[in-house]
């Protein structure tokens, strides 16, 4: 059974803190993604990685960075958290080719106070 | 710029009814159109997908209708059940972009008894 695991389901952080969201997949997928989900806005792509140490900006990369040191692990980093980054963050993975199923984790709820 | 527009934002139907969710896209290069289903507290999961070489695809009670000339596609749920209550997202991607999907804003469906 395919698995994308987001280690932290619920986090509360203070404004200005550095935040790490971790994601691990066990399917040997090339692609990994970080999406942000907000009511009325759907899922918006923050960053995408198609290989180890490779990354590409999505639609809303400002205020975020990512790290992919190993194929199975993709981290989202908020260098200095702000209240407008309070949201649900979804990690996902897929095989390389367009049209392959994207598998999502269960999400990390981040509240910045 | 929102490339995939989804409507309605929410929908309530009685058990046995046929909810219809509509999406419209702008980018004519899109060639893969999946629908994702998300239950509360879970990540989205692939429900059904279509490519533009066919006008309709059925999987069980779920049907996608696709109109290439109008740049529209829709999800129909036949004989809807309370267990279908979830949020539904349409999405689109194009060949050469790995599996990067552009999502609609989501439709919250409630099926009542």
Polypeptide structure, described:
The complex is a heterodimer of chains A (113) and B (113). In chain A, strand 5 (31-38) and strand 6 form a beta hairpin. Chain A has strands spanning 4-6, 10-13, 19-21, 23-25, 31-38, 42-51, 54-57, 65-70, 73-78, 87-94, 103-104, 108-112. In chain A, 0% of the residues lie in helices and 55% in strands. Chain A is globular and about 40 Å long. Chain A has 113 residues and is mainly β. Chain B is built from no helices and eleven strands. Chain B has strands at residues 4-7, 10-14, 20-25, 33-38, 45-50, 56-59, 62-67, 72-77, 86-92, 102-103, 107-112. Chain B is mostly beta strands. In chain B, the strands form two sheets. In chain B, strands 2, 4, 5, 9, 10 and 11 form a six-stranded mixed β-sheet that branches. Chain B has a five-stranded antiparallel β-sheet with strand order 1-3-8-7-6, with no helix packed on it. The N and C termini of chain B lie far apart (38 Å). At the A-B interface, strand 5, strand 6, strand 10 and strand 11 of A face strand 5 and strand 10 of B.
Keywords:
A: 113 residues; mainly beta; seven-stranded mixed β-sheet; three-stranded antiparallel β-sheet; globular; B: 113 residues; five-stranded antiparallel β-sheet; 0% helix
